[in-house]
Specification:
alpha/beta; seven-stranded mixed sheet; three-stranded antiparallel sheet; binds S-adenosylmethionine
Length: 340
């Protein structure tokens, strides 16, 4: 055990004030700072401040804080993106993942301010606290939020999509439908990597134009189609492979089991269900992002929670899947593959 005099509060301080750093990055994304620097090249503090429309008081500290946090470079007083922020936070690039950061800045950040209340009451703190009971109905009633949320999902899932395209044995399968597809990042990643695969996405009707436009941007409209529907009220479409990404964690245990059963029923014998999430490690100790994602589900809706690979394999076995395995994808994400 460490001697008391060797202990420091550094890690506590760093975590306790982590929201300062986090919100500084989120505001930079919200202000499109990285897109501006990518387009306009290195700018000095005055040029950057004027182009972003910021008040002089905090601007220099804001830019230099981003330098200190490793999100900007500064040479001879001129600011530029780092290689990472240029690749992932410039909205003009197809690799942009800022949608999830924009959503974090505008929605999740204020909602997380009520985490203590959520822990005490078990009640969500998102739009449904003041709006309707149905999270997606409430969110999708506002077209800007619908577009923002689905783009955020692409930011969240892009790396997992590339990993699913690379790691799953697609040569054994020909069709795929992503259940709850949002913009369609996963079928687009799979179809881009595998010419023989066709299919599409299934989601609530308001998502259709958003899916169609994203798929058209990737020149895949001839191979990927949208099926509108409600996965609780309607049967699921069939395909060799069904995908559910960040779907099960939105719902309570009974709903999770129902969705797994519906996927099993829709698949042909030998078909596969790929469930991917920021899966919590079986020891519930290491994947902090997965555990915090589960708290985010507490904030977002009435019954959702994240789970371990072992949990999901157990539910899959109960639904009838003959075999299942867990494989890491990218960052905090892993997939659970169930074979019918
Ligand atoms: C958390 S998002 C996940 C999006 C995407 N799979 C991903 O991981 O990037 C949940 C998705 O499920 C869709 N969804 C929610 N309720 C649904 C329902 N009852 N029927 C069909 N889709 C639904 C939402 O529109 C949304 O696209």
């Amino acid at each position: 055990m460490s001697k008391p005099e060797a202990l420091t509060p550094d890690s506590i301080m760093q975590l306790g004030f982590g929201f300062w750093a986090s919100k500084t990055l989120l505001s930079a994304v919200e202000l499109r700072l990285f897109g501006l620097l990518s387009e306009a090249g290195p700018l000095d503090a005055d040029q950057l401040r004027e182009r972003l429309g910021l008040h002089p008081r905090g601007a220099r500290d804001f830019f230099d804080a981003l330098v200190a946090l490793g999100m900007l470079d500064r040479t001879d007083g001129r600011y530029s993106n780092t290689p990472e922020t240029d690749l992932f936070l410039d909205p003009a690039k197809p690799t942009y993942m800022g949608g999830i950061m924009e959503m974090s800045s505008v929605r999740l950040y204020p909602f997380w301010g009520s985490l203590t209340e959520a822990l005490q009451t078990g009640q969500p703190q998102s739009e449904i606290k003041t709006g309707g009971d149905d999270f997606f109905e409430t969110l999708y009633a506002d077209p800007e939020k619908l577009a923002g949320f689905t783009a955020a999902m692409t930011g969240l899932s892009r790396a997992a999509g590339d990993a699913i395209a690379a790691k799953f044995r697609w040569r054994d399968y020909h069709t795929v439908i992503d259940i709850g597809c949002a913009q369609g990042a996963i079928p687009v990643a799979i179809a881009t990597a595998h010419d023989h695969v066709t299919g599409g996405g299934f989601d609530l009707p308001p998502v259709e134009p958003i899916f169609n436009s994203y798929v058209a941007q990737h020149d895949l409209s001839d191979r990927l189609q949208f099926s509108p529907g409600n996965f609780f009220a309607d049967p699921l479409p069939t395909a060799d492979v069904l995908v559910m990404g960040h779907i099960l964690h939105d719902w309570d245990l009974e709903e999770k089991r129902l969705l797994l059963q519906k996927a099993y029923d829709a698949l042909p014998t030998g078909g596969a269900l790929i469930v991917y999430e920021a899966l919590i490690d079986d020891d519930r100790r290491y994947n902090a992002f997965g555990l915090l994602m589960s708290l985010n589900m507490l904030i977002e809706g009435p019954g959702g929670f994240d789970y371990t690979g072992a949990d999901c394999r157990g539910w899959m076995a109960d639904a009838g899947f003959s075999n299942s395995y867990v494989e890491h994808l990218a960052g905090p994400d892993s997939m659970v593959v169930g074979i019918k």
